[in-house]
Design brief:
The complex is a heterodimer of chains A (123) and B (168). In chain A, 45% of the residues lie in helices and 20% in strands. Chain A is built from five helices and five strands; from the N terminus they run βαβαβαβαβα. Chain A has a five-stranded parallel β-sheet with strand order 2-1-3-4-5, sandwiched between helices. In chain A, helix 2 packs parallel to helix 3. Chain B has five helices and four strands. Classes of the chains: A alpha/beta (123), B mainly alpha (168).
Chain lengths: 123, 168
């Protein structure tokens, strides 16, 4: 059974791109979220194996959503998506419990590599 | 990668974002609504446009958006928009609209707007228009890490405090 993924990004374009990459990589995208609140709600509703979470989102930032998700499930597997120039936030992502990160623009092989390794990494 | 599909998605979404930025600028100009929210919207929309453009190698668009985003970030944190900044932001939004229109018409990367990059690089004059007091950024504890292919490997070291930028 393929691993189930929740994609959270306020840009429909990015969600579409990640969906295509992950689906072609053999993953099942079970839900998408366009802000931090939706991400936390969708995580609770769908219990995905992995979440991709954009850092900059409306209503609730990716980091805030990450903290809430980790509070609900300390074993949650979350990969943060940052953009060029946000590498300084990597340490904050680690403190909050993220397993991995991706930097946009996404390259399909890197996405699949990071997602695969994050799922393998022990909690 | 289906370039045609992503090109259309880029045009549609970037157009929506730029329209949203126009509304935020109007709100700031007329002192309507919550100025901090308007600045935040400008920042987020610029950030999104940057990411989309970079993924399609529209370097001129992603570079302009990146410069604008960096320029907006301190304004977003402080809640201060210098009056002199509004004109530059309006021009940047118009430029990005023209660039997106070129992509829509031709499918090609639009030419760079060096003039705007130079203007954005110059700091805006300090003439606060709207000010909102924000709580200072809280410190976050981290541990030192090494990073391998985007997956964290945490070394067992004592926590070190870092100041965290206020990100919403």
């Amino acid at each position: 059974m393929s691993k189930r993924v929740l994609i959270a990004d306020d840009a429909a374009y990015m969600r579409e791109m990640l969906r295509d990459i992950l689906t072609q990589g053999g993953y099942t995208v079970v839900a998408e979220a366009s802000d931090g609140d939706e991400a936390v709600e969708a995580f609770t509703d769908h219990s995905p194996d992995l979440v991709t979470l954009d850092i900059v989102m409306p209503r609730k930032s990716g980091l805030e959503a990450l903290r809430e998700i980790m509070q609900r499930d300390p074993g949650a597997c979350v990969v943060m998506c940052s953009a060029l120039g946000q590498e300084a936030l990597v340490k904050d992502m680690l403190s909050a419990g993220a397993r991995g990160y991706l930097v946009k623009p996404f390259k399909p092989d890197q996405v699949l590599d990071v997602v695969g390794k994050s799922l393998e990494k022990p909690e | 990668m289906d370039l045609q599909k992503y090109r259309q998605l880029f045009v549609d979404e970037a157009s929506d974002h730029l329209a949203e930025m126009g509304r935020s600028l109007s709100a700031l100009e007329s002192a309507d609504g919550n100025p901090a929210e308007s600045v935040d919207t400008l920042f987020r929309m610029t950030h999104s446009i940057k990411g989309m453009a970079a993924s399609l190698d529209y370097t001129s668009v992603s570079t302009l958006a990146h410069k604008l985003e960096d320029w907006l970030e301190p304004m977003r944190k402080e809640g201060i928009i210098p009056e002199t900044a509004l004109g530059v932001i309006y021009d940047a939004v118009r430029a990005m609209e023209e660039m997106v229109a070129i992509v829509d018409r031709t499918g090609e990367a639009p030419p760079s707007r060096e003039d705007l990059l130079i203007r954005i690089a110059a700091p805006p004059e300090s003439k606060p228009r709207v000010q909102e007091v924000r709580e200072p950024a809280k410190k976050a504890k981290t541990c030192r890490t090494s990073l391998c292919h985007g997956v964290f490997v945490c070394a067992p070291r004592p926590s070190i405090g870092f100041s965290r930028p206020s990100v919403t």
